[in-house]
Design brief:
single chain, alpha/beta, 7-stranded parallel sheet, 6-stranded parallel sheet, 13 helices, 13 strands, disordered N terminus
Length: 355
């Protein structure tokens, strides 16, 4: 992709470095790439090979796959290949997605090229970011953590995430073997301990008649399936598997739940709001920042299955409460966490407006 130098100077030309696999962070990556493309930003992406989301960005952002190796020689070869591609593309900025990706920002780039790492989780150390001029964090709490670790407060900016705000056509309950006349609760994410799906399954034992769809996959799958069976919930808890369009499953729900023990932001909360579904979440970091209790959603303590079941039962029985939460959340979402708002913030940042 070779362009005239005047064209390169006139607009933003962004190289993404993204080494993630699949999940909420990757869905936001797809959203942001497409949102920036709509605003005329030229982009390419360096990633690992054969990521499931390639075809969701490849029409607007050429993607180059690199099989990352621990071999010093192979890593030098990868760096050389990246440099050759970048030399033709002539970027105005590099954007790395978390620490692993940040290591691939080249140290010998032109001085006028902006470099930054986007943080969607809390860093433990800042050593990975020595080639990043700036950090961009998606919550104020992550900003504060970076500053406490020693990052300069005038070299970090908070820009949160957005989700597509249009309500999707819901997937048919028949397709998942779920009756039409029962309350349906949906949760999405990686099946790992930090996501708290075991707390949600325990809570379901105290939410009679309701069904639960767990949309995702991960190493805790067998443990969660065994827990559901032990509690006699195998007929009411459906494990959907990994899907590329979780919004259609969320759209079918009566209640959306985010039961995480640790959740830096909570893209899933935004996705629940976007699908006009009332949200219940535990008071992990991000959801407790996003949600105003009893106004835009319901919040309970982390790991408290009893209180979680109370909130789920409330929303399964009280349609007026659910509609009030949906209306308030929709207003808040559209004011702060939709495409135009967040993309415009990135455009200003790419133009080096960091106030």
């Amino acid at each position: 992709m070779v362009t005239d130098r005047n064209e390169a100077i006139a607009g933003h030309r962004l190289i993404h470095i993204h080494m993630g696999e699949k999940g909420g962070a990757e869905r936001f990556f797809v959203h942001l790439v497409n949102g920036l493309a709509e605003k005329g930003v030229d982009q390419i992406a360096f990633t690992r090979p054969d990521r499931v989301w390639w075809d969701q960005i490849s029409d607007v952002c050429p993607v180059y796959g690199f099989k990352i190796s621990r071999s010093h020689i192979k890593r030098r070869l990868i760096s050389w290949r990246m440099a050759r591609i970048a030399e033709q593309f002539r970027p105005t900025a590099y954007m790395a997605w978390m620490g692993v990706a940040a290591r691939w920002i080249p140290a010998n780039r032109p001085k006028d090229v902006l470099t930054f790492t986007r943080l969607g989780d809390y860093p433990e150390v800042l050593d990975h970011y020595n080639t990043s001029e700036y950090l961009v964090a998606n919550t104020p709490d992550i900003v504060d953590t970076c500053i406490k670790l020693g990052w300069s407060d005038n070299k970090i900016k908070m820009i949160s995430n957005f989700t597509e705000s249009e309500k999707c056509h819901p997937i048919s309950r028949d397709a998942v073997g779920t009756p039409l006349d029962v309350p349906l609760i949906v949760a999405t994410g990686r099946f790992v301990e930090r996501k708290g799906f075991d707390t949600l399954i325990e809570a379901m034992s105290k939410v009679p008649n309701a069904h639960l769809w767990l949309v995702g996959d991960g190493p805790e799958l067998e443990n969660l399936q065994a827990q559901a069976k032990t509690l006699g919930l195998e007929d009411r808890v459906k494990f959907i598997g990994w899907v590329t369009d979780p919004a259609r499953y969320v759209s079918a729900a009566d209640v959306f739940c985010c039961p995480s023990r640790h959740e830096p932001l909570g893209n899933v909360v935004l996705e629940g709001w976007a699908q006009k579904v009332p949200v219940v979440a535990t008071a992990s970091e991000g959801p407790s920042w996003l949600i105003k209790h009893e106004h835009t959603g319901l919040i309970c303590p982390v790991g408290d299955a009893e209180q979680l079941s109370v909130h789920l039962n409330r929303l399964c029985k009280d349609n007026a409460l659910g509609q009030r939460l949906v209306d308030n959340a929709d207003e808040y979402l559209n004011a702060h966490f939709v495409k135009d708002v967040i993309v415009d913030q990135y455009l200003k940042f790419l133009g080096r407006s960091i106030d």
